[in-house]
Amino acid sequence: MHGDPMSAAFDPGDDAPVYIISVAAQLAGLHPQTLRTYDRMGLVSPGQPAGQGRQRRYSLRDVLALREVQRLSQEEGVNLSGIKRILELDRELRRHRQHLAEMTAELTQLRMELESTRAVAARLAGLLRSRSGGGQLVPVHGTGRAAAGPGSPPPIGQRELPAAASLTELDND
Predict the structure, then answer these.
(1) Cα 125 from Cα 112, distance rounded (Å)
(2) In the chain, pLDDT over 90 holds for what percent of residues?
(3) Pick from 53, 6, 56, 18: nearest CA to 36
(4) Does residue 168 have a pLDDT over 50?
(5) Which residue in 20, 70, 141, 164 is a FRET match for 147, CA 20 to 30 A apart?
(6) What is the DSSP letter of 75?
(7) Of all residues in the chain, what percent carry a pLDDT higher than 70?
(8) Residue 32 in contact with residue 21, Cβ under 8 Å?
(9) How far apart are the first and last CA of the chain?
(10) Which phi and psi (to 5°) does residue 47 adopt?
(11) What is the per-residue pLDDT across 59-69, written as a single tens digit (0 to 9) for each?
(12) Mean pLDDT of the 116-145 span
C-alpha cells in the first residue's frame, strides 16, 4: 500500500545500501568477483552502512548501474575506461538536473511572492488614494522626485504617499 504512512517509514528508496555483494551480483547477472573489480576501478562502489564491521552493501541504483556497465561493455563494445567516463557524466547530469529543478522551484516561489507583493502594493496605493482626497503627497525617501522627464513616474524607493493617510488608519480597515 503506497499511501500508508507507516510503510513510507520503512521504504528504503533507490539509494539505500541494502544488498550484500552476492545478492547484488545475482540481481545484476554478474559474478561477485566482477563487482569487486568494478569497485576497485571506481565504476560502481557499494555504500558503507552505519556501524563498524558491517559488510558493504549495494543499493538498487547500484544494481541498475551494474546492469548498465554490463550492457555497455557487452552490447555496445565500450571499454571499462569509457564506461567509467559515461557513468561520471551521468552522475554529473543528474546533479545538474536536480540543481535546475531546485532553482526552478525557487524561481516559481519568488514569482508568486512578487505577484503577491504587487497585489498588496496596489491595494495599499488604492486605499491611500481614496483616503487622501487629493491631499498633499509627501516623499517617502530622499527629497522627492529624481531628475526625470515631465510626467514620468518616480523611481522605486522615491514614491510618494499622501500626507493624510497613516498606517494605523489603514490597519483599521
Answers:
(1) 20
(2) 53
(3) 56
(4) no
(5) 164
(6) T
(7) 66
(8) yes
(9) 50
(10) -80, 160
(11) 999 999 999 99
(12) 74
Helix (H) or strand (E) holding 67: helix 60-74
Where is average pLDDT lowest: 11-15, 34-38, 150-154?
A: 150-154
**Whether pLDDT at 16 is above 60:** yes
Cell numbers describing residue 155: 523611481
Q: Give the amino acid at 9.
A: A
Would you say how long the chain is, in residues?
Answer: 173
Single-letter amino acid, residue 100: L
- Cell numbers for 139, please give them: 516623499
CA torsion sign for 41, 43, 46, 47 is positive
77 exposure class (CB count in 10 Å sphere: 0-12, 13-18, 19+): exposed
CATH 1.10.10.10 fits 11-88, yes or no: no
**Over residues 129-143, mean pLDDT:** 62
Single-letter residue type at 1: M
Residues 6+ apart with CB under 8 A from 165: 127, 128, 131, 132
Q: Where are the domains of the chain?
A: 11-88
| Side chain identity, residue 113 | E
Q: How far apart are CA 43 and CA 75, in angstroms?
A: 17
